[in-house]
Amino acid sequence: LDNGADPNAQSDAGPPLLWACGHGKTAAVEVLLTRGANPDTPNEDGVNSLLTATAAGETEIVKLLLKHGAQPNPGSPPLPTNAAAAAAATSAVATGAAPPSPLPCVTSTTPLIVASNEGNLEAVSALLDAGADANARDEDGMTALDAAAAAGHQEIVSRLIGVTARPADVAEGEWTVEGVMKRAAAQGASMSGGGGGGAADSGVGLSTSAAGAGGAAGGTGAAPPGSALSGSVAAAVAEAKARGDAAFRSQQFQQAVDSYTQALDLYPKADLPQIPAEDRVMKGTLMANRSICWLRLGQAPLALADGQMARSLRPDWSKAYFREGSAYRAMERYEDAANVFFEGVQVDPNNMDLTAAFQEAIEAGRKAHRENQASK
Fold first, then answer.
1. 3 state SS of 102
2. Domain range for 141
3. Cα–Cα dist 301/331, whole Å
4. How many Å is the Cα radius of gyration of the chain?
5. How many domains does the chain have?
6. Which end of the chain has fewer CB atoms surrounding its CB within 10 Å, N or C?
């Protein structure tokens, strides 16, 4: 820095500040911030320093970032109002036309949701004091309160319930700490019994859905009715998935790939129409999880293949579209990325992360088109 190094320089790992935050280098973080590092600059995956520090459990760094002006709430662009408007925006990738709005940092969660899921009360309090939005949702639709309750963190639920809007389907008398915890426990039991709703990612991709994946993910050792798996094999799938999730959280992406592959290999070989519906939820989740690991390893074509399979298995799951689109984006196939992200918005119209990714793909395609024209 004394010799003129740029504190905001980007690399494959993102800016220096993000790396220092993820590795707990508090002194380095402080130096970078005082020398002009932007605490909100994301890496190419749309992850910024505050989110990284929160996920790493580095509470003192979280506080330091907030002290230096880090924004606790990632921005979100407006949702496309109709298919015609979205299609017109997608065409900007090829024509170089102006995108519909400026782009925010693209993330799949918020620091508050991550801290709540991890049970970090000190970080939760610091983020709330800095203005973090307790009603923000991740791409699975979970709030920080949902994440804390699903993970069993009653103290954090108590901290959040007063600043979180009561859902319309929850009676006023049930909107208590005990009521929220009971509701989360019931939902978790339902999920592990084979329902397989949207919150089936167990933290992968910085999504903090902690209710468990459908089918074998509940860890009960029982396969869902109709599954091609026996109880013991279902338990082995759940165990391998849990190892993959833990490896991902530790940024051991190749190890995570190996664990997810082990889980997938336990399923009988079958064409898509022959796969029982009860098994498609877990297989789709495993494919989506492995997809983001491939992406972090720089293997975009493999990430794309897994993302496409995840969408085939779970066409009603917004995260599968996010994974496929992210792989296209990494391959600089921006029009394909924009189309997939838009299709995901049709599945989940309230998913602001997909909307942000859709618009980011348009902007990236527009920039690439402009640079291509300039080089002719």
1. coil
2. 108-199
3. 8
4. 21
5. 2
6. C
